[in-house]
Design brief:
3 helices; elongated; 6 strands; alpha+beta; Mago nashi protein
């Protein structure tokens, strides 16, 4: 009698194990076709900000733009601020300039030409995790900085948010 009880218990365990294995195999079945891995086409996250101060007119204004084209224009003297959206064309050009500036510009300490009447620029960028901050004036900026500042000044003047 003990053997019959043990036999039916062990048969019951095997049935449970067999059913569990069948359910596990059924759960692993995938009716969907295999998908090819997709290339990472995500847009790199970046921002750029530029503060212009000094000059004969005593400027103190800034512009900040992110990778989505959201722009913030601020005139610190007049205490005015306006938000805007830059065009897709300007955004693509600016993304290339920010990437180039962020990856090639080295911080310079020795080249600080003073200029009383020059504009002073504080430029900060972050591109794909790389942060770069630099202070320059009209006399000591390199070509990468000059192109980026020129593009930002052009975008700022096209929007003319603070003069209205």
């Amino acid at each position: 009698m003990k053997w019959i009880i043990r036999s039916s218990i062990s048969q019951g365990r095997w049935r449970v194990v067999l059913l569990a294995a069948l359910f596990a195999l059924y759960g692993c079945q995938n009716d969907q076709p295999a998908q090819a891995p997709q290339a990472n086409t995500a847009t790199p996250q970046w921002y750029v900000s530029l503060t212009i101060s000094g000059g004969l007119s005593g400027q103190n204004r800034s512009i900040r733009i992110n990778h989505q084209g959201v722009a913030q224009f601020t005139d610190h003297r007049r205490k005015t601020q306006k938000n805007g959206q830059i065009s897709k064309n300007d955004l693509n050009k600016l993304a290339k300039l920010v990437k180039n500036y962020s990856t090639t510009t080295a911080r310079r300490k020795g080249k600080s030409t003073s200029c009383r009447d020059c504009y002073r620029y504080t430029i900060s960028t972050e591109y794909d995790g790389r942060v770069n901050r630099q202070q320059v004036n009209d006399l000591n900026m390199d070509e990468n900085v000059r192109r980026l500042i020129g593009a930002l000044k052009t975008i700022s003047s096209e929007h003319e948010p603070l003069n209205k």
